[in-house]
Amino acid sequence: MSEVHAVRRGLLRDRCAAAGSAAALVSRPANVRYLAGGAPPGAVLLLGPGEDVLLCPRAPSGESGHGRPDEALRVDVLPVPDGDPVVEAAGLAASFDVDSLAVEEHDLTVARHRAMATAAPRLLLADLGFTVEQQRIVKDEEEIGCLRIAAEITDQALGELLESILVGRTERHLALELERRLVDHGADGPAFATSVATGPNSGQGRHRPSDRRVEEGDFLSVRLGASYHGYRCEIGRTFVIGTAPADWQIELYDLVFAAQRGGREALAPGAAYREVDRAARHPLESAGYGEGLQPWTGHGVGLEIEEDPQLAPTAMGKLDACVPVTVEPGVHLPGRGGVRIDDTLVVRPEADGGPELLTMTTKELLAL
Question: Where is the composition biased (Polar residues) (predicted)?
Answer without folding.
Answer: 195-204
